[in-house]
Design goal:
alpha+beta; Glucose Oxidase, domain 1; Jelly Rolls; 4 domains; 8-stranded mixed beta sheet; 5-stranded antiparallel beta sheet; 12 helices
Length: 706
């Protein structure tokens, strides 16, 4: 973390950008131990300080900017293990929060913590346990050819070791690296793994050898601007990365160049070495103190980067803003406290909601917010479920006196798909709700990989017409579910009815960042879209308050060649409607040969009487895509590949709806005349035609009326 320029540069750029953590202070210290020398700890901390100063200057900032950024850092001279008195709780807490750190042990040569690449690249398998060994080390030489400049398109083993076979042992391979310590193209980590696996190795131990000019190239590179990070090559094993990904079945790990050369030298001297790769419990190396003064875990060390600290600061900044928002006056209906969510039923409750008249009298008719928190079996991250899952909140409401709610759900579903994915809405809620009651999705979230600190506020005011009655209370059944076979989570849920308030600048910025402009050519083939007719999400809908009713437009389905069939409906504005907004919650899941729907960017076009309203999710597949949304509620430093951007969602966050004002397209002219609405879901501007089993789009799209 501290020796890598890439790690330090990315971290400093994060700190400089703020990202909602402008008030954060970073305290750096040497952990040491009870017997550690304070002189040694002081020397280590001084080296840390020097490294930060060197890299801040290397970024090309003016001296005043360097001083401003470095003023956010404090350095402790004494080893943390010797802290006592009022600070004693820090080493005690770190000791209580151990993490398993994958460690490579080679008796007589080294014992070092190592980086497991399965947390970084989805093409590399993630075994339940690392290889236990001991495994005899076999040196396969340069796994990517003699030199980076002459590396073949399909990397092969070094000629001197062409006939070598690991025979079930540990394969030692070097690779030409750039300034960031990663393989120089066309060499990739996945290709190195394929070389080791072909040699019948049980594990691959990789180490970099800096290519000629790598250091010079790094020093001559233009200084990155805030928000820009050094490029990180994706692991395309060969021209057919899908088959490469499917072929890998052994873990890969990386050690430093010095460690790798040490092992290689011992082998060349005739030593017989065995390697053991095992998870070793170690004390935590970092913690955060939140806005309330409580200590918090900051997640799993999956990347060798100090950005783990800046992500933690951004997330605590987000949490402080959530806490401030919860102090606003509101009428609150508690649905359930921390409750185990498991099985097909999930969490099922009945609640009574106040009427619009009661909310108006209390000054709480401005907007409807879901306050959802996610917890685990115990207080620590290690007690949380490992995998990311879709969480759905289904609702079914009727008048307390037995009638239907407001305008209710009107209209039909054009080309919709019954049921849901990952706890999606499909069956009836039950629970004694009578009258005209149609179940619908009220909220959607994605669980994190093995972290339990999420809390999100979701504005669902455009669906207010499905929840509230003007002059009578509503009785609603709420059902929160995820994949019924998955490990349990413990969610909490309240409905907050708040006073009217215009969306904050922060909320506008979040919505604007999430919704990307549709490309000029996108949709030209399938949707016949005129770029000049496109419109993006418009600020202002959030301030309209709860809708009077809502018309269901379209659902999702399998994202294949038939996805866009029968996607036309006709809708009519209800009597008295003066405003209308498109409200759509869209996420992609699964994986075909295009990476759809989870990792492929998709575009969704809604045509209202000839005018297209569209949203494009360009973050899907971006290597660091989710890291840019930590300040918006994405839980950082999760146990899996959380950092990738997804199609309309991020691991460990709420799913945000796309909204757009369509009043002039469906209400203008009056008379309640019906309007034709057409929908397309597109990949690269066309209807998808995957060659493997297609992924899935989960979508609920509506026109809400005021």
């Amino acid at each position: 973390m501290w020796t890598s320029d890439f790690s330090l540069d990315s971290f400093l750029l994060d700190v400089a950008a703020g990202g909602g953590a402008e008030q954060a202070i970073y305290l750096m210290a040497s952990f040491g131990g009870e017997a550690a020398s304070n002189a040694a700890a002081t020397a280590e901390v001084q080296w840390m300080q020097q490294r930060l100063q060197e890299r801040a200057a290397a970024l090309g900032w003016p001296p005043a900017r360097v001083a401003e950024v470095l003023s956010l850092f404090a350095f402790a001279a004494d080893a943390v293990g010797q802290w006592g008195g009022a600070a004693q709780w820090i080493p005690q807490t770190l000791a209580l929060w151990p993490q398993n750190v994958t460690t490579l042990r080679v008796p007589g040569a080294l014992s070092v913590p190592v980086t497991r690449l399965d947390g970084e690249y989805t093409v590399i398998p993630w075994p339940s346990e690392p290889s236990q060994g001991p495994a005899t080390i076999v040196d396969l030489g340069n796994g990517c050819g003699a030199a980076a400049a002459s590396a073949p398109a399909a990397p092969t083993r070094h000629a001197a070791h062409g006939a070598a076979a690991a025979g079930g042992g540990a394969a030692l391979l070097s690779f030409p690296s750039g300034a960031d310590g990663r393989p120089v193209a066309p060499c990739t980590f996945a290709a190195l793994g394929a070389v080791a696996q072909a040699a019948n190795a049980s594990v691959a131990v990789l180490f970099p050898i800096a290519t000629k000019g790598a250091a010079q190239a790094a020093s001559l590179a233009p200084a990155p601007q805030p928000g820009q990070f050094p490029p990180l090559a994706m692991p395309n094993c060969t021209s057919n990365s899908t088959s490469c990904a499917e072929s890998l079945s052994i873990p890969l790990t990386v050690v430093s160049m010095a460690a790798g050369l040490r092992v290689r030298a011992s082998l060349q001297e005739g030593a017989s070495l065995e390697a053991t790769l095992a998870d070793v419990p170690r004390h935590a190396m970092e913690l955060a103190v939140d806005h309330a003064g409580a200590a918090r875990q900051v997640g799993w060390r999956k990347f060798a980067t100090l950005r783990m600290l800046s992500w933690a600061a951004q997330f605590e900044g987000y949490n402080s803003r959530v806490a401030a928002n919860l102090t606003r006056p509101a009428t609150t209906v508690v649905a359930f406290g921390p409750t185990k969510m498991k099985g097909k039923e999930g969490v099922l409750v009945n609640v009574t909601l106040p009427s619009r008249a009661e909310l108006a009298q209390a000054g709480s008719v401005g907007r409807i917010v879901l306050d959802m928190a996610l917890g685990c079996q115990g207080p620590l991250d290690e007690t949380c479920a490992v995998w990311d899952r879709v969480v759905t909140l289904a609702a079914c409401c009727s008048r307390q006196d037995g009638g239907g709610v407001g305008g209710g759900v009107s209209g039909g579903v054009g080309g919709g798909v019954g049921g849901g994915v990952g706890g999606g809405v499909g069956g009836g809620v039950g629970g004694g709700v009578g009258g005209n009651c149609s179940e619908f999705e009220l909220g959607r979230w994605i669980t994190p990989f093995r972290r339990g600190v999420g809390r999100w506020l979701t504005d669902v005011s455009p669906l207010g017409g499905l929840l509230l009655q003007p002059d009578a209370q509503s009785r609603c059944s709420l059902r929160m579910t995820t994949d019924w076979w998955a490990s349990a989570w413990y969610p909490s849920l309240s409905l907050r009815f708040e006073a009217a308030a215009s969306p904050s600048a922060e909320q506008r910025a979040q919505d604007g960042r999430k919704v990307s402009p549709a490309g000029a050519g996108a949709g030209a083939g399938s949707a016949g879209a005129d770029p000049s007719s496109r419109r993006e999400a418009e600020a202002g809908v959030e301030s309209w308050g709860p809708s009077a009713s809502a018309t269901l437009l379209f659902r999702g389905g399998k994202f294949g060649p038939d996805y866009n069939n029968n996607r036309t409906v006709r809708i009519s504005p209800p009597p008295g409607a003066t405003r209308a907004a498109l409200y759509a919650v869209i996420t992609g899941h699964g994986s075909d040969n295009n990476g759809c729907g989870e990792f492929c960017p998709t575009e969704h076009v809604f045509r209202f009487a000839g005018t297209n309203v569209s949203v494009a999710y360009a973050d899907a597949g971006d290597f660091w895509g989710s890291t840019f949304t930590v300040a918006e509620g994405t839980i950082p430093s999760q146990h899996g590949t959380w950092q990738f951007g997804r199609d309309g969602w991020f691991d460990g966050n709420k799913v945000r709806a796309f909204t757009a004002d369509v009043t002039d397209l469906v209400v203008a002219g009056g008379g309640g005349a019906p309007v034709e609405v057409r929908y397309w879901g597109l990949y690269k501007g066309q209807t998808p035609h995957p060659t493997t089993s297609p992924g899935v789009i989960i979508m609920w799209s509506w026109v809400a009326w005021w």
